[in-house]
Amino acid sequence: MVHGFAGRTDDCRIAISAQAEGTTLILRVEDNGKGCSIEERNRVLWEQDSGEHGLTSNSSAENGYGTLNVHRRIQLQCGPGFGLRYVPVDEGTCVEVVLPLRSHVQIDPEEESPDV
What we know:
single chain; alpha+beta; four-stranded antiparallel β-sheet; 2 helices
C-alpha cells in the first residue's frame, strides 16, 4: 500500500471485503493506487508453487517479499489450493486471500460435558 500511494496526498482508498463461496472464504483488499502488473505478481506466486524461485536477491520489498511470505504461510497452514491471487481491476491493485471456510458451531451450555 505504501508503494501504491507514493506521491499521492488525497483520495487514497482501500476497500476490504469478505465473501463465502462454497467451502472457501475470499478476503479481497483493493486500493485505488498506481497499480501493478498482476501477471508479474501472479507469476511470482505460481513459480513459488511449482518450486521455482520468483524473486532474486536483488528484489526489494516493493517486488513482493511480504506478499510472497503471506502466500507461503497460508499454503503451509491450509494447503496448496489456498493463498493469494492478484485480480484485474479498472484502477489500482486488488489482491484476494483464498482461505478454507470453517464454521464454528455454538454449543448449548446445558449440553456441554463437564471438564474432567
